Every structure is written in C-alpha cells, then in structure tokens.
Amino acid sequence: MAITSDPVFGDVEALREDGGGRDEPSSETRDASRRGPGPQGEARASFGPSSAAGLPPLSGVYVRPRPGQPLLGGDELRLDVDGSLPQMVASGVQRSSSGQQLHWVARLSRVGADSWQGGIFYKDGAASLLPHTTLRIRVSRSGALGNQEAEVTFDGTGAGALTHVYQFKDVYFDRVEFEFDATADAHPVYQIDTRDHPNRPSDLPLEPLTIEDVFRRTGFNVSISGGGSVVPIAGAGIDRVWSDTEMHDAMQVAWSRFADRPQWALWVFSAALHEEGGDLGGIMFDSDPSRRPHRQGTAIFTESFIKDAPAGDPAPAAFIRRTRFWTAVHEMGHAFNLAHSWQKSLGTSWISVPNESEARSFMNYPLRVAGRETAFYSTFRYRFSDQELLFMRHAPRRFVQMGNADWFDDHAFENAATSAEPELKLELRLNRQKPVLDFLEPAMVELKVTNVSGDPMVVDAHLLQDVDNLTLVVKRDGVPARVWQPFARRCMRPKKVALAPGESLYHPLFTAVGSGGWLVAEPGWYTLQASLELASGEDVVSAPLRLKVLPPRGYEDEVLAQDFFTQGVGRLLAFDGTREASLDGAADTLRLALARDASRPVAAHAAIALAMPLRRSGKVLRGAHRIERVEAIAAQPEDAQKLLQGALSVDSNQAARTLGHIEYREYAETLAGSLADTGDVNAAHSVVNQLESTLQRRNVKPAVLQQVQSFAQSLDARAAGRKVEP
Amino acid sequence: MTTAHGVQLDLQEGFLRDEVVVTIDGHELSSARDVTTRTQLGLARSLHLAVPAGAVRLTVALPRLQLSEGVELPATRPLWVAATLNEARDRLTLQLSTERFGYV
C-alpha cells in the first residue's frame, strides 16, 4: 500500500489501513445509517505519521518522573513538531515537591536534526519554578517508537542553564471519551467521505472521515463510550423539540459517563429540533451561569436549517451530510472551550488572540465568510485553525477539559497537588438548609477538616486558623474568580492534637469581604472553593460550595448598599467593631442597617459589630499623622448587652443560621458572661438555655452541647466573683 | 421562523443586559429587556416583527448606550435583519438578508 505524506493530514493510507470495523459501502447507506460511530474506540497511531524519512514521529507527551514522589506527579513535556498539523510548539508542566506547579508554552524553530530551540511566551502558575525564558530541545531516537528521550535545556535568565531529560509517553496529548446518542427522528452524521461533494480543495485527501478522526488529528486519543443509543421519541412526549433544560436532564440520565465534575468526556446528542426553532442547528447547551459544570453536553438539531442545501447545489445530499457532520464537530469544539472564529478576542482568553473571521475552521460559520458556503468549503480542510490547535494541545488543561473552566472563562484549583488517597477531607459549608443569603447578609462559611484515613492522625490544632496555608477562591457567575485575602494573619504557636478517625476540626470564615474588597455582595450565584496546604506539601481541596445572594428587597436596600459594601464596613464586620471615631461613618451605616429592619440577617451582624467594642473599657490613639496621646474609652456594658440580645435572642434560629454555629455560640456565651459579670445571672442563664436549645434543634453534636452546659455551670461562680466597672 | 409577510430581527453579537427598542417609521413596534448574547451561538434573541405594509424604515435603538441605527426596508419578504454591537459596544450595525441566519 502506498504511503501518502500529506502536509495537513499526514499519513493518509495509514489512516485508511485501520478501518476500525467501519464498513462504508456507499454514501447512501452511510447517510441512512442510524447507528453511532461504532466500536472504533482503540487508539490508532494516526496522530503521529511518519516523517519524510520514514522515521517515527517525535511529537507527543514526554514525562519526567519525580523519584520517591509518585503522588505529586512528574514534570511533563508536550512536543508538537511533526505528525498531524504540527504547530512548532513545546509546552510543559514543572512541579515542585511542595505542590506548586508551572505551566509553560514555547514557540520553536528547527536548528538541526531532531533539535529545536525557542522562547517561552506563556507561563501560568508558580513562575519561580522556571524563571528561564528560552529552551533547546534535542530528541534522541533509539529504535522503535516509544523509546526516545527528549533533553530540554532551559536558559535565558543569567542564573544558569537547567537541563531535564524526559521519557516518551504517548503520541497523543490527552485521552477523551465521546458518547453519541440520538432521538429516533434525528439524522445524525458521524462520518462522511470527503470525495462526496465536488466543492472541495483540489488536493484534499479523499477518504472516509469520522468525528473521531478529526479529534485524533487534533491530538486526542478518542474512545467511544456507550452504545450509540437511539432515544425513542415516545419517551419525549408529544413534540420533537428540545429545550436546554430537557437536554440537561437527558444528559444526566442517558449519558453513561455523566458526573458532576471535570473529566475528559463529552455527550453528543442529536435530535430533530430545538424549541427555539429551525434557525438553531446545534448548541453546547450547558453554559448556564447558574448551573455547573459547563461544557459537558452538546446537541445537534438535524432537522433545523442544516437539513437544507443551497438552491442549485450540485450535490445537495452530500452538502447536507457535510453540514450535519460539520455541525457536530463544531458543537464538540465548543465543549473544548473553543469560541467562534470571530469571537476570539472576546471574553477571558488564555493568551491574546486575534479574531479569525475568514478562517477555514470547524469553529467558523460557512455562512459568515466572504463568498459564503461555496467559498468556505472550497478551501476547508476539515480541521481547526492553528490558534485553536495551540489552545487544545498546549493551554493549561483546566481551560480545555470538559466540565472544568467555565465556558468563556477560567478558574479554580486544577493545579493543586492533591493526593490520590487523601487522609484529610476539607469541606466548606453554610449552616443552613438552602444556600441562599439575604441581600446585604455577610457570607459566613464554616471550614471543616475530617480525618478520613482510618487511623489516628496528629495535626496542628490551628490547621484551619492559619490562613497562610489556606487559599479560598470566590467566583461570582459570569465574572473572573478572586482569591480571598484576610484582613489579618495570625502567627500561632503550633499545637499538636490527635485527630481520631472520623473526627473533625472546625473554623468559621468570614468570606464576604477581605483586604481586597467585597467578594460576596452583589446578587447572583457564587462558587467558593478552598484549598489547604499541609506540611507535607500536599493540597487538600474542598468541593465547590455554591451559594446565592438574593436581589435587593427595594430601593432602600440599593441605597444602603452603596455605603455598606465599603472597605470600612467590611473591616468593622470582620473585626467586630471599632472604637475609632474615624470609622464612625462605617458604624453609622451599620446603625442604619440595624434601625431599618432589625429582623433582617444583616441586622444581627451589624448589632454585634456595634456591641462588641462597648463591652469593655478600651483605648484609642489620638493625633494627626503621629501619636499625640492615648485616650481611654469607657465601657458601656448595658448598651452592649441590649444590642447582643437583639441580635441573638429575638430570633435565635436566624442568628445561628447567619452567624454560623461557632460564632453564634461564641457571641451568646459572651453575652451571658457579660450579664453574669454585671450581676444579672438569671438573664445569663436564660441566654445559655436558649443557646443550648437552639443548637440542639439544629442537630449540633452532643459534645458541643455538653460544653455549653459546662459553661452554664460556670456562670454562678462568675457572678459571685464579679467585678464592678469603676 | 419568520412569516411570509414578516421581518425577523436577530440581535446577534455584543449584547449585555441591554434594552432594545424597535421602531418602524418612528412608531415603536417592539422592545426587549435584558438582552444578552449567548456566546456559544452568537445570538441574543430573535424578534419576529409584524411590519405594516408600506413601512420603509426600521430603527433599532439601545437607549442606555445612546445608540440607534436605521435601515431602509426593501419590499422583499420574508426578510431577516441582523443587529450587531462591536466589541467596544459603541457602534450598532444592521445587516439585511433575504436568507435566514443559522446558529450553531
């Protein structure tokens, strides 16, 4: 069999040689076929064709294991210099023993046989891991495919060269799994023959071409899951149109690989029509900001406008087959986070990229280019553009992987050095059934870390309080993620404690606002995710916590919000108030929030921030630009008690919900202690009794209730030995 | 899908929680609020307009952006009009077509 080396598709005959069970007798039978793509899930070595000299390809993934640290994963090199659609690019990931990592990408030029050099133009992550700016790569061939090594020398900083040797791992850059399902009234096309329509590039290889072929040539080792199910229409009701919600629901039921997490897997659903009508030919339907993860499901509506051929087309049946095939790949491209060709400069892009309005890419609309479909297909080579290939092969994988970064966006912790068998589990939670916050209600979440190892562990008792080890990302839907920065960091002396299997540590976290400003304020949905770096360097990552902030209740809310979501108010809430007169403006805002409606959750936070500084006498520094004197501030315990009682006792259940159980208990015991100190021991007991009953109703652990009971027993002694404020 | 006597206005790229007002020869024909482009389609919303016979000028306005653009309507029906905002959202463009715009 003759080998044809094509500049675009590489080894054409090698592709045909492995039919993978495809029996394609004619265009007509293919068109009528209702089956899925079939069982050609085995990886074919089609991505890396022979070079002109008949040598094995060098492109692919190379790895550099870290001896003794298998859990951290090794360094990785992606070499993209030959094979299908080479981009003359190398990229890689450097990992440190402490769990940091850096993703880099470099442009290459050939400098000799199997040798390249270039400059690093993109870094993402811990830049200190690789300060170098240039690199040289030399690959040593040693016989058969799979035995080669890549020696990479990083340089260009003046700090000295760094050389690493990587072992070849795979010709494909990633593995991905597709599942194709269709309704009985749809006519999906998963495979075409490039010779079927006469309007094509004159040198286009003439061959059967499957969707898997397209993505294998893009660099993915494609396998097929499921059986290509045909969904009976009777199960869909009386109509043949599908809404996004119906498709999302169907995905969860019909897709054998469905999971609410990132994975290299995609569901492709073909149906007759979308509910929006015949103008909609296909859609990646899971990009709703209120529902995550994104980019796991795509749909093709085969009876929409894509069933039509232009008037006078010489081969209308082939035109329609080609359009349906093109549409399927186009929608699948969206799931890899590819935008339309004319939208490249919009949204959050991983690198600055220009629009490609005339690109002959699966991601462009044939109707939008000059000369419309006729011009498009006359030079279309069934491929993605170079810029798209660069992204799919070399961008940080969280940007590309289905279900990971949001559509048109990116975020989160895909870089964390997590263990395959973690010993600790980290959770973020709200002390309420529905994760919904009232407008202006500051977000207070609880951190919980649990020993899930099965054996007792020794940990630092302050593990959750040491914010230097904690990273919290807060992302409001539709806007980039932000990292929470605390107002203050505490340096705490380590205190080792034993954590029995199943035992947990807890800590409240005031996540609404930090030194970088308010993170949870405007109405909408938010995603919070925390990562805790352990002394071993391993990261423990929580599951994302979704919460919703309700809209303002009216005009007054909107007016108050202008003064409320300020750094001054944020500081007061985070530090439990102030005695500093210069922050009186912020305190006035809290007074207003309290006065407007004491039953709102925000009122409890405001009252506590106003009350806490009044409990004890204190001091403030006075002076303009220098300390001139220290001024004493007298305690106002009765005022403090009144404010705290309003915050905690009027609606104790709401107080526990909005403050969180830990903070609610702390403030209630503070109030009770203050009442005992001022001689009102009955009122103190009343507060503690309410605290206990409230926590009991909220199913707090018995050990905590016992601690509350012990505190109650201490009140009488405290009242007996009370000090009277002068 | 537009009717034989209708005009379909497709609000395509660049819309972000916008209010859109459509007038025919100075009379308001349709309006839409909270119009946002779905980037995976390049389409925000399709408005099906019942344009009176003999009407000649279609105007699309975005009051909040103080943008307005008009186009003379040919007698051809059905007719499709695409409205697009540029990336800076300071220019509105209208494009006429006698064939529908498809979205994928």
Order of helices and strands of chain B: EEEEEEEE
Gap between N and C termini of chain B? 16 Å
Low-confidence residue ranges of chain B: none
Shape of chain A: elongated
The chain-level structural class of chain B is mainly beta
Number of strands of chain A: 35
Largest interface: A-B, 28 and 15 residues
Counted by DSSP, the helix tally of chain A is 17
Q: What is the number of helical segments of chain B per DSSP (H or I, 4+ residues)?
A: 0
Order of strands across the biggest sheet of chain B? 4-1-7-8
Report low-confidence residues of chain A grouped into runs of 5 or more. 1-46, 410-417
Mean pLDDT rating of chain A = 82
Helicity of chain B, as a percent range? under 10%
Structure report:
The complex is a heterodimer of chains A (726) and B (104). With 726 residues, chain A is of the alpha+beta class. Chain A has 17 helices and 35 strands. In chain A, the strands form ten sheets. In chain A, strands 3-4-5-6-7-8-9-10 form an eight-stranded antiparallel barrel. In chain A, strands 11, 14, 15, 17, 19 and 20 form a six-stranded mixed beta sheet that branches. In chain A, strands 22, 25, 26, 31, 32 and 33 form a six-stranded mixed beta sheet that branches. In chain A, strand 25 and strand 26 (482-483) form a beta hairpin. The longest helix of chain A has 20 residues, at 316-335. The radius of gyration of chain A is 31 Å and the shape is elongated. Chain A starts with a strand and ends in a 6-residue tail after the last helix. Residues 1-46 and 410-417 of chain A have low confidence and may be disordered. Chain B is an all-beta fold and 104 residues long. The radius of gyration of chain B is 13 Å and the shape is globular. Chains A and B meet through strand 19 and helix 5 of A and loops of B.
